[in-house]
Amino acid sequence: MATSTETSHEFPFPAHALLAALTDADYLRARLAAVGGGKAELLSHESTDGESKAVLKQGVPADKLPSFVRTLINGDLVIERTERWRAAGEGAVGTVVASVPGAPASITCSLQLRPNGAGSQLLSALEVRVSLPFVGGKVEKAIVEQIGKLLDAENTFTMSWLTDKP
User: Model's pTM, two decimal places?
Assistant: First the structure.
């Protein structure tokens, strides 16, 4: 079984400006530095002809994890995340695939960036799957909660990045 959730974030910037930021290596490095946790880094970045792929590593300190998750993972949680974006019409579509090396968990997210009046809207549909008997659902819910907090922090960072950009 999997746990799913959907989110929506509004930006007062046009979709093309938001897409440009989301696929920019400098933005990604700055976002990781601000909200990526310990040992965060941009592992690779490619951007060509309206398509972009970034591979990131993020960390969650063990003391920030729910106690029952700490019993399943030794030390800090390390997440490897691949983000892909492709321009589509006046917006873009994207995917995020994340994994925790050594853990029976997978995270997938489909993204849609679309115009919304003078600004844009970023929609995400997230699915978390943890293959652990008896506690998998509880771990999935904890992961979804943590990802929700991360997405909020990333979107707040993105808003600041675009607002403060010269």
Answer: 0.88
